[in-house]
Write a structure and sequence with these properties.
It comes from Paraglaciecola arctica BSs20135. By secondary structure, the chain is an alpha+beta fold. Helix content is 23%, strand content 32%. It folds into three domains: 306 residues, Alpha/Beta hydrolase fold, catalytic domain (Rossmann fold, 3-Layer(aba) Sandwich), CATH 3.40.50; 108 residues; 91 residues, no CATH class. It contains 15 helices and 37 strands. Helix 4 packs antiparallel against helix 8 and helix 4 packs antiparallel against helix 15.
């Protein structure tokens, strides 16, 4: 690491380790001000981490003004904003819905419902081109009534009565939510119903009068990651303070949450204890109130639900169950008889449901009344299979049109009706209603083209990474471009947490980039989930450099093909992808001419002390473990800025209300670049949460700013 040995190191280091008092901060600031420009700070001052601190927001507002004045003065900004607003507010969007209890539920936003309207209709009505909706709750009206900037974050509904739900409302888009009991049939909050104050809460219904809750009970009930680790049971009419303690993890866990599994005509009350981000223990809470019983399954696993008595598990590690002669691989989908385990606490008759090859993985599991539905990624192409179980598993491929990415957008165990969304880079979304019991497929909704794709082609290539691994990537371009290295190109990637990036339709990208002659590259680098758990785990902790090497390899490959050149190549990524952008900025500044760094992690020596950061130690490693810290020192963007370096322009995009990735990451990086005179743009949305936009209008504005920045750097 380029740890610069400046005079202020003692104070700065002490502040980093133990925190600073106001007098200590003032002493550090005065010392910094007395030093020459290139000898000011080892670390950016900690007051930038004070989310809504007066000094920090003054700095943010100053940066915002400079960037907004510059980008909004460009005539393209107004063009991009107008196009963006037309797309996000379009009346002919697909009203994606969840089908349950005889109704299709939809959350709708447009220019009239900025914060959104919760509504529902019948299945028959939903299949019509223009359904008649029953409005349930206007978030705009609620916000106006209560003088709050409410953002709707979803609901948890009672399985036996879908009218009764716990709604999650976020102030400005934060992960923390206030939960209130709501009755769809009465279109009102339940009088004297359940209310849980703002926190990162998890709830599960036991029955109409009882819920299990994991929330912020007091200052000592949260983990180091900021999530709850104590679960209590609450009866209707009880105060939260009177809730009964039923389960407890530890402060070093990521978090502990209740959930339920639908098993025939009953719900099993369960607990998941996330020991790390990727390792969990699962427990059953017997109805008689006796002690929780742990399931004898591996820690790297996901419970997908119960189908015809079989508990279905998605393995993220190799596993051989006790008394079983068979070993299953990481990436396998397996099942066993749940009733036998509930009665005997032993696993009987383990079955293999699905085994992937090197270039395939399970992308989604859905359970209906009579079928198990698997969405598979096969070389980053989606296929859907319908499975059944009768002593052993059988399957058939669903005969969907072969066109891009697919996902099951709605399925539940009370019906065999599912909704499947299909899209590609150039084909707009189409929604299919599928009855998996008789394999009847009907396209019921689609959106019109948002941009002219008549001259667009999509290609898939492979780049050879530094260690020889083949890294697939997509190129979306005008078919008649000249391969002379001058095409403005945007390369996007994520590379973490087993998140898969698939071809998808984006009107904003198409209208404001592809139609302008831009090329788009989607890189399926390691760290993601495109090829299963092993593809993700190849880049964990101190092995993470392979992820960065993959990103570099794709950039070099498209330059070698003369699709573009470093002068015309930009990159974009958010959250973990924001860390990727920061590393690309410091490791290979010669390879790009513009970097869009969204809601990023950038201070990798302190990330675990900021908001939810401690939960990601399983992904990045711990700065408190010497060998892992040594690696983090080498890659941490904030700590690897060369004061005399020749860097591309970088645009930071973050949100004050992001309570997942701290806005201090972007603030501190911008501060350091400002000290050294390096070029950057900065936009921090005061609301918006981790998406950096709390509503569709803000999304249109943010993307208009980003495409204006990219146009200035890669086209002009």
């Amino acid at each position: 690491m380029k740890l610069l040995k400046f005079t202020s190191i003692a104070i700065a280091s002490a502040c980093l380790i133990a925190g600073c008092s106001n007098s200590e901060k003032e002493q550090q600031n005065k010392l910094e001000e007395s030093l020459p420009m290139t000898e000011k700070v080892v670390e950016a001052p900690l007051w930038l981490e004070e989310v809504e601190g007066e000094q920090a927001l003054a700095k943010v507002n100053g940066w915002n003004k400079v960037t907004l004045d510059k980008l909004m003065a460009d005539k393209r900004y107004a063009q991009f904003l107008e196009a963006g607003l037309e797309i996000v507010n379009a009346k002919d969007k697909i009203p994606y819905g969840t089908y349950k209890g005889g109704f299709v539920y939809n959350f709708w936003q447009d220019e009239n419902q900025v914060r959104g309207m919760l509504r529902r209709t019948t299945l028959d009505e939903y299949s019509k081109p223009q359904p008649k909706w029953q409005d349930l709750l206007s978030i705009d009206a609620l916000s106006a009534l209560e003088e709050k900037n409410w953002v709707y974050k979803g609901s948890e509904c009672l399985e036996s009565n879908y009218d009764r739900c716990l709604l999650s409302l976020s102030d400005g888009g934060k992960d923390s939510v206030e939960m209130r009991e709501w009755d769809h049939s009465k279109q009102d909050f339940v009088e004297n119903g359940f209310v849980i104050p703002e926190a990162k809460t998890g709830v599960s219904w036991k029955d109409i009068n009882n819920i299990n809750i994991a929330t912020n009970w007091d200052d000592d009930s949260l983990t180091e990651s900021g999530y709850p680790f104590i679960i209590k049971s609450l009866q209707r009419g009880q105060q939260l303070t009177d809730a009964k303690h039923i389960f407890e993890g530890t402060k070093t866990d990521v978090g502990v949450w209740p959930f339920s599994i639908k098993f025939g005509d009953r719900n099993l009350n369960m607990v998941v204890r996330a020991v790390t981000f990727f390792e969990s223990e699962y427990f059953w809470l017997p109805d008689d109130g006796s002690q929780a019983i742990q399931l004898p399954i591996p820690q790297k696993v996901s419970i997908e639900g119960v189908f015809k008595g079989q508990l279905v598990l998605s393995l993220k590690q190799q596993w051989s169950a006790l008394n079983s002669k068979e070993t299953f691989d990481s990436g396998d989908l397996v099942s066993f008889d749940l009733e036998h385990w509930l009665q005997k606490q032993e696993i009987k008759d383990l079955h293999l449901v699905y085994h992937p090859n090197e270039r395939s993985t399970v992308d989604g599991v859905s359970i209906t009344a009579n079928k198990l539905v698997l969405t598979l990624l096969e070389n980053v192409v989606s296929n859907i299979y319908v499975y059944d179980f009768n002593k052993k598993w059988s399957q058939q491929k669903l005969a969907m049109p072969e066109n891009g990415s697919m996902s099951v957008s709605s399925a539940n165990q009370d019906s065999d009706i599912i909704f499947i969304n299909q899209e590609s880079f150039v084909a707009p979304d189409t929604l299919f209603k599928v009855d998996v019991s008789n394999v009847k497929i009907a396209a019921i909704k689609s959106i019109p083209a948002r941009f002219d794709a008549s001259n667009i082609v999509v290609e898939q290539f492979q780049a050879s990474s530094k260690d020889g691994e083949k890294i697939p990537y997509f190129v979306v371009r005008q078919k008649d471009i000249i391969f002379d290295g001058t095409n403005p190109t945007l390369q996007y990637a994520y590379g973490g947490f087993q998140v898969s990036l698939k071809p998808s339709y984006s009107g904003l990208l198409g209208k404001n980039w592809l139609e302008q002659g831009g090329v788009y590259v989607l890189a399926n680098i390691r760290g993601g989930g495109e090829f299963g758990p092993n593809w993700h785990q190849a880049g964990l902790k101190t092995k993470r450099q392979v992820i960065f090497d993959d990103m570099i390899a794709v950039g070099e490959d498209i330059i070698a093909k003369k699709i573009t050149s470093a002068k015309h190549l930009g990159i974009m990524g958010g959250s973990n992808g924001g860390l990727l952008m920061g590393v690309m900025y410091t490791q290979r500044p010669d390879l790009w001419n513009a970097v869009v760094c969204q809601v990023p992690l950038l201070d990798m020596l302190r990330y675990h002390k900021l908001l939810a950061g401690a939960s990601w130690v399983g992904e990045y490693g711990s700065p408190d473990i010497p060998n892992e810290r040594a690696f983090l020192e080498k890659i941490s963007p904030l700590h690897n800025i060369d004061p005399q370096g020749d860097y591309p322009s970088i645009m930071f995009v973050t949100s004050t209300k992001d309570d997942r990735v701290h806005p201090g990451h972007a603030r501190k990086m911008a501060y350091m670049l400002e000290q050294y005179g390096h070029d950057f743009e900065y936009y921090e949305n005061i609301d918006g949460g981790h998406s950096a936009s709390a509503n569709l209008q803000e999304k249109a504005k943010r993307t208009a700013l980003e495409y204006t920045f990219l146009s200035q750097k890669l086209i002009d």
